[in-house]
Amino acid sequence: MLHNKSFMKLTKRGRAVKIVREHYLRDDIYCGVLQCKLCENTSALLSAPPSTILVLDTNVVLHQIDLLENPAIEDVVILEVVADEVKNKNLSVYNRLRTLCTNPQRRFYIFSNEYHRQTYIKAMVGESPNDRNDRAIRVATQWYQNHLGENSHVMLITNDRDNRRKAIEEGLFSETVESYVKTLGQSNLLDLVVLQSSEDATTMEIDDLRPSKRKVVYAEHKPMSEITSGLHRGIYHQGKLRINRYNTIEAYVGSESIGEEIVVCGRSNMNRAFDGDVVAVEIVPQDQWNDASSLATVDDDDEEENIHLVPGSVDDAPRNQVTSGSVVSSSSRRQCGRVVGIIKRNWNSYCGSLEPMAMPSGSSGVVYALFVPKDGRLSKIRIQTRQLGNLLDKRIIVAVDSWDRSSRFPSGHYVRTIGKIGDPETESEVVMIENDINSKPFSAQVLACLPSLPWSLSSANVSDPNREDLRHVRVFSVDPPGCKDIDDALHCTLLSNGNFELGVHIADVTNFVHPGTPLDDEASQRGTSVYLVERRIDMLPKPLTEDVCSLRAEVERLAFSVIWEMTPDANIISTRFTKSVIKSCAALSYVEAQARMDDSRLVDPLTTDLRNLNTLAKIMRHRRIEKGALTLASAEVKFQIDTETHDPLDIGMYQIREANQMIEEFMLAANVSVAEKILKDFPLCSLLRRHPIPTKEMLEPLLRTTAAVGLNLDVSSSKSLADSLDRAVGDDPYFNTLIRILATRCMTQAVYFCSGDLTPSEFLHYGLASPLYTHFTSPIRRYADVIVHRLLAAALGILKLPPVFQDKTKLTSISDNLNYRHRNAQMASRASVELHTVIYFRKRPIDTEARILKIKANGFIVFVPKFGIEGPVYLTPKGEKKSCWEMDEVHQTLLNTGTGVKYHLLQTVKIHLEVVERQANRPKLELILL
């Protein structure tokens, strides 16, 4: 049956145009219920009568997704009208819903009611889209009831009073979420239910948890219409709010409209904004601007006091202002503002624990409790629970539901229990959850895509005209010790003309990971492997990463090779690309490779190849630096882990050797060569990697620091900055490394992008001083490299370019996800290091040396080179109103007016490291000046 749908659409010039589209209605859309006598659906999921079939409305899906993910909820019909509305309103929830609907174990079925002849409805005159959708949901529910007959039980689940009333009047069974969950007889499930906000619930004080001296009332958020108008008129400024990790009552909003950060001081001025929220900010009068020169003068456990603020004022400004005794130049006073509205919420599910409390008498029913997120930048969250006794010693996950202006804390609901507080596995899982790392086992569908094991080279592989047999070539790999996912190897052969044939051979992952398969979809979503201190979370299943694709020694493997002819002075004469078959003769660690090169007694062919590679790499590295490539530094920490308990046994800075730099040089060269090739053939759909030039504002902290220690850095180009960093030397042998670490922190993030989205001038990789760059050399652990392998294969005519490369929007979405996943992997790695640092020092307090990185009015931030640790050192005791310390902002010094003791940037100080737990379940490493 054909039906015409019409709607009005505005053109770019503002004209209203009527659009008419053909809408086909069908009779062969099945109900999805097993053993249905009227449908012949072999892929039916839902249980046969007398099981209850649930039909959900849109708001139930949007707000109760945590409940829906619980296995107790099953036999659910998701109408197409609901799925579409959820997709438009919240893409994250929609993706979680889609995961439920594609999991055959969960029995969630999508019914295309908008294309079924008996369930499609037209909007009535004067009917709103929302009312029309509610009516469509009721019509579909009625159809299911009639279709399945007398023995069936179809129930509409809705919290909308009007929709439920109409459903009951129309003879349908309907329940609220809470009333339905109660019928299941699992009281703990009620903790997952998001309750309707009401004046009674949101204004309720939790006096039994922690008495409040005065009631908190936040300023009302402006309506979006007023915010939009204010943004246009320049009254308000839009940006993402980021809370200071060292001072949780101070936040920053990066505003493009005024070109600099706006400081937001105090809980009242943050006005219920969470870290990561996109907010509208109003600049406060200049007499309320803060110098923002202090470390946090309060600890996390003082949050209760700091939250009692008067709306519209900067109550805790005196804590940071000159009254502390610091001397601050007027130029350091930065624009301050207050949040007037939330443009886009960044609410997620958070890991933490309940605030310790005595068990209320007769606590078998509902009690209120305060949830303390592990991330100290976040507010405590008020939840209801029926299982308090079981949760007090557990790490749990809580989601935020609302934050009323008359409530001190946001309201939320319990999602699930992770494990016992302090258990290493529990705390490691917290790291993964907080950084959205998917550590779930690979599904059966994904594993079904793997080749049969044991895998070995076939005659078809060798005879493939697109694949070159290089098994006779002396190929070897150099990796970190214990590396099992080896995705790169090299060879270096001296040619008769005195030049070198040099090859970089990369695991041919795309030979096993095909576009559009469940394996490919999973890898695309994961984006990258994640390396934690004690474990690795793979992007691809282990049979591929550690066996089939890994370029292990003495086994024949498939590769994708970049082969150059190179002169002895490292000039590239020619470049070719080929799929290949290789057989690595050795899998060396960096230490082993370095030892071979350093041992003059060794003259075997493999060692000679290593030395030749190293000689060429040094020339290439020097040439890159001459072009302006930056040599930066970061605090990479290495742990020695107990193989049985997984506890850290030792900790220290990661040592970089010549062998590391040698491998890095050839991987960089391969990536550049591949980038040039794929962009030439596919100028609009190549996946590249860029490193944007840092802005002047980003480099300002570095310039202030170096000026204070008598250094004049030239940041006009990457070349001038590189030269300046080379000249930044002092008496302290670690001085130059510290400056490079500070420079690293001023850099922008390198990002993936689609070549069709930007102009060639924007392709630049600033840090490498390369006009073009991509990632090709690690397809086992990065999905970006998988995409680039497919592009290169298509450029060589080996394979056709997959259809996704013709969809610019999809490509942009893929690159956005890769950037998100890459950043999350970095953050998870750092969080894992912090976790194991706390575990290590809990039993091993120690005195050591540190260098001062930043001067603040009441202390300084130090870096501990031996352990790669950074943290605040306080000079002013907690709660002390007056300080004897004077800060010189220009020269970045702190002077004690009583004793004459002075501290300056990059100075060496002696500190004591120990783990303290000033707030329950939040252990942290404390740095104390000796």
Automatic annotation (TrEMBL):
Cite the RNB domain residue spans from the record.
467-798
Q: Does the keyword Nucleus apply?
A: yes
Q: Identify the residues that the record assigns to the PIN domain, covering every copy.
A: 52-165
Q: Name one GO biological process term.
A: rRNA processing
Q: Does the keyword RNA-binding apply?
A: yes
| TM ranges | none
Single GO cellular component term: nuclear exosome (RNase complex)
InterPro entries, sorted: Dis3_CSD2, NA-bd_OB-fold, PIN-like_dom_sf, PIN_dom, RNase_II/R, RNase_II/R_CS, RNR_Ribonuclease, Rrp44_CSD1
Q: Name one GO molecular function term.
A: endonuclease activity
Assigned keywords, A-Z: Exonuclease, Exosome, Hydrolase, Magnesium, Nuclease, Nucleus, RNA-binding, rRNA processing
The family line of this record is: Belongs to the RNR ribonuclease family.
- PANTHER family assigned to the protein according to its UniProt record, in alphabetical order: EXOSOME COMPLEX EXONUCLEASE RRP44 (PTHR23355:SF35), RIBONUCLEASE (PTHR23355)
This one is known as: Exosome complex exonuclease exoribonuclease
Organism listed in the record:
Zostera marina
Its taxonomic path starts at:
Eukaryota, Viridiplantae, Streptophyta, Embryophyta, Tracheophyta
